[in-house]
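To illustrate this point, we now present one chain and its tokenised fold:
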Amino acid sequence: MISFIVPAYNEANQIGAVVASIRDAAADLDHEIIVADDDSTDDTAARARAAGAIVRGVRKRQIAAVRNAGAAAARGAILVFVDGDTFLNRITLRAALAALDRGAAGGGALVRFDDAPRSARIAIAVVARVLRLAGCCGGCFVFVRRDVYDDVGGFDETLFAGEEIVFARAVRRRGRFVVLDEPVTTSGRKARRFSTLTLFGTALRIGLRGRRGVRRREGLEIWYDGEREAPDRIPPPPSPGVDS
């Protein structure tokens, strides 16, 4: 079985489409979809259930801990983490499973924004490829064998950001961590709300301070302020079964 784990906070406007994208991508596979609802104040949980997901309520307000809580409820031998604003497709999922079949311990994928300023699209492409050269990836889509996940102890809950990079490094010590050419599509709302300079400034500050810069929620508002776009400002989800 494949367990899809979707950490979500106040994603009512998108969670139904996200779950539907996973369900379509895995239509012919034995799977479960678990939404780890992190104490949302909207109807994320109800909409996730209506879309066919299993919902596990948590109160963490920390992405690493929410991912781990979802994994604790999972039954699959393969874990696939898909953020609550990220859309999966069949091509990328098949590539991930093929990588595991070839012996990879885990991996991720390149990322596309659903809609964002051109400068932000260029920036995310550059960052994704730099991370790839370092053997890491963004956290919106991560897949791993369950035994490897258990062996590394899951995501580091002392970190409020950058936990996916630490996780990838830990997985690489157990086997290959691959970053797929086949992309996933994620929300560009941060790029629509914050300037590219602000986003790069936050990333640079974290890079200079290392783990000290991500051990508290303060200063990480681009991930934790909880503000969401109005429904009429959200781009439509990608068409089912395609990679863009």
In short: The mean pLDDT is 87. The first helix runs from residue 15 to 25. Residues 2-233 form a domain with the Spore Coat Polysaccharide Biosynthesis Protein SpsA; Chain A fold (CATH 3.90.550.10).
